[in-house]
Amino acid sequence: MVTLRYDEGTIRIEDAPTDVARLSFVESDPRSKTHRAAAYRYPFVRRICVDRGLPLDDRVLRTADIGDLRTEYDLRGYQTEALDAWRDANDRGVIELPTGSGKTVVAIGAIAALDVPTLVVVPTIDLLEQWHTELDAEFGEATAIGRLGGGTQRVEAITVSTYDSAYLRADELGDRFGLVIFDEVHHLGGEGYRDIARLMAAPARLGLTATFERPDGAHGAIEELVGEVVYRLSADDLAGEHLADYDIKRIEVDLTADERETYEAHQETFTDYLAQSGIQLRSGSDYQELVKRSGTDPKAREALLAKQRAREVMMNAERKIGALADVLDRHRGDRIIVFTAYTDLVYELASKFLIPPITNETGAEERREILDRFRRGDYSRVVAANVLDEGVDVPDASVAVVLSGSGSEREFTQRLGRVLRPKADNGRAILYEVVTNETAEERVSRRRR
């Protein structure tokens, strides 16, 4: 008889017949005189044994009893379609929906449908708290809700964890859950975080994200560990009925004469080095090669510093502040979020326009207070450097202003999503993108669209 056991992130296969032992993902373990496979292979090993009619003693999962899980949520049509698509894919795969469309609701529907112990993995403490509150409201009468992160380490039949805590305890907890949900699943592409999925035996796996594909191609690893995208809708698909209609308006500004001179000088230093060294920047890997060179080549380091200084000039252009002043004046009665790439600019804008700032230097309590007051209407605008892009419950706003940012499509999608929740007056959301003319920022703007 074939016996399957969980053992520190692996599935130990005792008395494996030859056809199982020869599977590409099964390895011999001479020490224990058994065979092993990574824990995430558990459902595949089990299915092979069952399909081949092998006598099987399955002792892998050590899940706790759980009450009858029910949800009060009435899923929208597209949320039901997403959940059905995931179930049709054998309870595996990724659901890609825009920010504000209710991915959490779909996940709660999945937990209630499977009615098994569940681990929810999130990237930030803010999301940890949001998920814990939501899960306790929905399932708190049936079971206690555990929490791993933010100073608490308590495991229950339904538990929410940060990626960091799950990474540290994955081999210990790998047999405790039948379903694992990865919120902002694109984070799982990080080499270390992949071990969370590798070391867990949970047969059911759900990934949630607004932007699945990663520039480094690591979404391929996520597809192996969680499953492929089984359902996908864009903001355009949901605009008008489930999300606010929206417009994206580009405001172009010119560098001042002094800024132009400084920008061109730095750009020239950078491009001259590329020409002299024969490096062509066609991809991220080409840029990484340049970074490696800078460790031993002073001229490469000088070129990179020049590139960074040119970027700072174009992204913090003086006339962007004037463009922002016009937008703030035009939308005096609207809630506005201003996004920048630089912390120093956040504080400059906060001082000039008397807008509360949020940066990575802002404490959790202060940030929560600012956002609560923004939600209540005490504040009508906030300015932030990257920290509101993902993993923070941001109150409804109708106008976003991107003064500067990267070429990341994910970042742009997250920022747009901050203004897409339906408006009480059915009004349109607006995202202003402020771009400096005749600089590399024009290319950055095209790339993130």
UniProtKB/TrEMBL annotation:
Its EC number is 5.6.2.4. One of its GO terms (molecular function) is hydrolase activity. It catalyses: ATP + H2O = ADP + phosphate + H(+); Couples ATP hydrolysis with the unwinding of duplex DNA by translocating in the 3'-5' direction. PROSITE patterns: HELICASE_ATP_BIND_1 (PS51192), HELICASE_CTER (PS51194). Coiled coil: none annotated. Residues 320-449 form the Helicase C-terminal domain. Residues 84-211 form the Helicase ATP-binding domain. It comes from the Archaea. Keywords: ATP-binding, Helicase, Hydrolase, Isomerase, Nucleotide-binding. InterPro entries: ATP-dep_DNA_Helicase, ERCC3_RAD25_C, Helicase/UvrB_N, Helicase_ATP-bd, Helicase_C-like, P-loop_NTPase, XPB_DRD. Belongs to the helicase family. RAD25/XPB subfamily. This is DNA 3'-5' helicase. It comes from Natronomonas salsuginis.
